[in-house]
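Appendix B, example 12.
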Amino acid sequence: MIRNVVIMAGGSGERFWPLSRKNKPKQLLELTSSGKVMIAEAIDRVAPMIDYDNIYIITGEHLKKPIEDALPQLPKENIIAEPAKRNTAPCLALAAGILMDKNNGKNQSIAVLTADQIIEPEENFRNTISKALDYVEQHGVISTIGIVPDRPETGYGYIETGNKLNDDEIGIYDVVSFKEKPDEATAEQYLSSGKYLWNSGMFFYRLDTFIEEMRLNAPEIGNKIEELTESNPNIKYVFESLSGISIDYALMEKTKKAVVTEANFHWDDLGAFDALDRVNNKDEHGNIIKGNVVAIDCNDSIIINSSEKLTTAYGLSEAVLIQTEDAVMSCKKQDAQNVKKIVDSIKENGLEGYL
């Protein structure tokens, strides 16, 4: 069976503005101490187990060339550009149609990964992927990866687990239900129960299983998959006709074939600037400092300067200060999730040129 990896890399990363821009979003930024952009880290994780010829990136049309430049090791035809901005269900339907056409409908499985997550150790990650693919190939189910929570996180969705389906150290469980991002009290309950995992947004399935389940649970998308081929001159029209719905709502919350593979690796989703605390080296005062910066009496702060200018700071505590060539953004670290509100305000004021 042919094994493929599809990495979704179409997000805008608005919570990382002003570093993240329309033509250089989060997945094309160096946000960790590795010195690599996020999408390159994602490729390097799976390259030891999947040939480059079977690794695909799906992204927006405007990001196709920047991603090609960032990933010269991948065949250019493996960078799939969505004809229009939709959501993850149309995105994965497009990938399914192209892979079905490219491999002449041969037996194949797909690991759907994302471009903006921190995962270590990588060997454990690859072992988990292999176990998940083995299971879905054998049983014709759809697996996601669930992360064992270590804190009452309110920023992630959760998966309620049922019976264990295997005897392996890497456990695979029935999915009882998917839960939206909880409030703090509910997150505490999830954590203490031991029955809930974080939803990582990674998926594993045989191609034929995916198509069958999409036709059953989201027929308005599933019935169009065979038309989503690069040889179809009307592919743009077909894709634009699809509803912009997430794969969670379209499929995972409806299918009776959902299982969850429990991760045995550390996972972190870089959702906003405060997440950088967990994945970067710090100075003796707990600061993350990058670029041309002079910081005095600052502690537990994130100060990043990507411009040629000098950034100075005095007395900052638990703050975020970002400077680029054309913008400066500052907030309390605890308010980092609200950077998106700044972006929304920029749009409302007709200043889209800064995005």
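The first helix runs from residue 38 to 46. The chain has a mean pLDDT of 95.
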